[in-house]
Amino acid sequence: MVNIKSGETFERVFLNEPEVNLHIVQEAGSHVKIHVLNMPSKQAEGSNLQTILNEITIEQAGEGCETEIYALAYLHDHESVTTETHVTHAVGGGTSNQLVKFVLADQSRGRFVGDLKIAPDAQKTDAHQTNRNLLLSEEAEMRTQPQLEIYADDVKATHGASTGQLDESALFYMQQRGIDKQKARQLLVNAFMVDVLQTIGDEELKERLLHSIDGVVE
User: Fold this and answer.
1) What angle do CA 79, 68, 34 make, to 5 degrees?
2) What average pLDDT does this structure show over 67-93?
3) C-beta atoms surrounding 47 within 10 Å
4) d(Cα 98, Cα 35) in Å, to the nearest integer?
5) Which of 39, 128, 134, 191 has the largest count of CB atoms under 10 Å?
6) Could you give the C-alpha distances from 214 to 14, 21, 40, 121, in angstroms and in order?
7) 110 CB neighbour count, 10 Å cutoff
8) Can you say whether the dihedral through the CA atoms of 23, 63, 121, 125 is positive or negative?
9) Is 76 a residue whose pLDDT tops 80?
10) Global pTM value
11) Residue-wise pLDDT tens digits, 116-146
12) Which helix (H) or strand (E) segment is 128 a member of?
C-alpha cells in the first residue's frame, strides 16, 4: 500500500507490465495520476495464452483529493487483459476521473470492472468513469462491469460504457477521398486511442507511444 501525503503528487506510467497491483491511500489535497498501458506486442502464431490482471485500488481519505486513472489495452491473438479499478471517496470535496479503453483484434479478450463508491460523508464529490471498447474482429470479446455505489446527495457522478466496431461509413468516406482501406482503418483506430495517450505527462514517452501505434492494424 502506498500512502500519498497531503499536497503531494504521485504519477506513474505502467507500460506492458505482466501485472499491476496498486493500492493507494490519499491524504488531503493530494493528486494521483495513473496510466496502465498494454500496448501492441504481436505474439507469434501458436504462442501460449497471455493473461494479464491489472488492479488499481484508490481511497481518498482526505478532503480535496484528485484522482486520474487512464488505461489502454490493444490486444491481438489470444491475449487477455482484465483491468479492475476500485475508487472510494471516503470524504468530500474530491474529484476522480477514469478513462479505460480496449482495442481487441483476433481472438483477444478484454474485461473491465469499475467499482466507484461515494460514502455518505463525501459531499461535493465530482466523479466520472468512462469505458470505451473497439472490436476489430468478430471473434474478439469484451466484458464490462461498471459498479457505482453512491450514498451522498450533493455529488456529481457519471459513468458510461460502450462497445462497438469501426464505423463503416467513416471508412467508406475516407476511401472515397483516396485513402486506402488499410490506412483508413489505422487512422480510425489511432483516433480512438489517442485521447488516452495524450494525457501522459512525459512528453518523450508520449511521442514514442504515439509513433508506435502506427502500422499495427491488420
Assistant:
1) 50
2) 96
3) 11
4) 10
5) 134
6) 20, 29, 10, 47
7) 28
8) negative
9) yes
10) 0.91
11) 999 999 999 999 999 999 999 999 999 999 9
12) strand 126-135
